[in-house]
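Researcher: Structure prediction, please.
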Amino acid sequence: MPTSLKTPARSAMKTASDLSRLMHDVLARARAHGATDASVAVNHDEGYSIDVRMGNIETVSFNEDKGVSLVVYVGQRKGGASSTDTSPAALDALVTAACDIAKVSAADPCFGLADKELMTNNFPELGLYHPWAITPPEAIKLALDCETRALAVDKRISNSDGVSFSTYNFIHSFANTYGGEGCIEGSRHSLSCSLIAKEGEAMQRDYDYTTARNRVDLCDLNTLAHNAAERVVSRLGARQIKTQKVPVLFSSRVSGGILSSFINAISGSNLYRKNSFLMDSVGKRVFPTGFRIYEQPHLRGALGSSAFDSEGVPTRDNVFVDDGIVQQYILGSYSARRMGLKTTANSGGVHNLTIDANAGDLKDLLQKMHTGLLVTELMGQGVNGLTGDYSRGATGFWVENGEIQFPVEEVTIAGNLKDMFMGIQAVGSDINPNISTRCGSILINEMMVAGH
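Model: Predicted structure follows.
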C-alpha cells in the first residue's frame, strides 16, 4: 500500500474570515472601478477520490479548487467574470473584465441585486460540515474490501466495473454591496460499487451507492456490497414485453426525475420565455387531491440544505403544491421581475424538494399496482418541456399479482407529464437517502410501454 499518500490538511482550506476579507476587497475594487453594485462568490473545495477494480488501484486523485466569481452592475447593465487566481493583480483583472463587459452590454430594467430588504448576514447553522479523517491508504483498503465482499456474494458475478470512494470538504461564501453576506461550510462522502454478472451468454451490469455529509450516515460496507450484488444478479434473464398500456411504478432511484420535470415547468426562467407546458398554472390543479410538494432548505445535515440561495436571499420553506393545486412558481430575482413577482429565494434551484408519502414501502406499492412495470433505470432525455411529452428508455421488472416475475429490458415508456402528474396513485415512504430530492417510489395509473 502506498505510504506516501497523505490526506490533504484541513488547515489548507481558507477560513470563513479569509473569504470574507477577500470578498470585501473585490467589492471595494468593483466600486472603485465604476460598478454601481456588485456581488461576489468565493468557493474553496478540497478532497480526494479513489477508484479500484478487480483488486487493483486504478486512480487516486487529489483535488483542490478555488475560485472567485464576480457580477457587477453599471446602472442597468450587467457584466460578470471569474478567476482561480486571487493575487492583487488577478483581482484587478477580474474587476476590469466584469466592468468592461457591463459597460458594453445591453441595459435591462430587470437586472440588479436581489431586493435590499431581503439581505442579511445572519444565517442558521445547518450542520453540513463533517470532515472524515480517513487517509488514502485506509480508503483504498475500504474500497477493496467492498469489492471483495460483493464478488463473493454470487458465483455469477464474474467481474467488477469498479468501486469508487470520495471525500470532499468545501466552503462557499457570498457577499454583495447591499450588505448581504453568508458562508456555508460542508462535506460530502460517497462510496459506490458497480458489478457485472454473467449467465450463459447474457451479461448485466448494475450498481449501488451511498452518499452523505456525515460518514456515520453512510450505508455500511456489507449492506452496500450485498445490495449491489443482488441488484446485478436480479437483472439476469431480462427480456422484452409486448407493447401495452399498463400501470408504471417508478422506483425511488428514478422517481425524483418526475418531480424535476415539474420543477422545471414552474421555474421562472422557462415561464417568462414561455417554454413550459404549465404556463399560468398557479391556482390550478396539476396533481390529485391530497398531494403536497414543498422544499425544506434548513434540514440539518441534509444533502440539499442551504441557508441562502445563489443571490444571498435567505431560503425558506416554500410550498409549491398543496392539495394537488400549484401555489407558487420557482423564482430568482431576475425571473421574478420579468413576471412582475417577487423572488422565492430559489435562484440556483430548490433545496431538499419533498413530496409527502401516502403509501408504504416498495412492497406495498407493488401490491397496489398488482400488475404492471416496475422501472429501476431510465435512459435518454426524452422530455419536452414545452408540450410535456415524455418518452424514455427503461429497464426494470414485470409485476403480476403484486410480485416481481422477471427482469425487463429494451422497452420505452411514454406519456404526457400532465396526464402522468394527475395519474399518480401513490407515493411511497421509501425515500432514496443518497439524493437531495426526498421522494419515494411513484405509482402512475397508466402509461404506454413499447416493447416488441
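Model: Residues 238-452 form one domain.
Researcher: Thanks, that helps.
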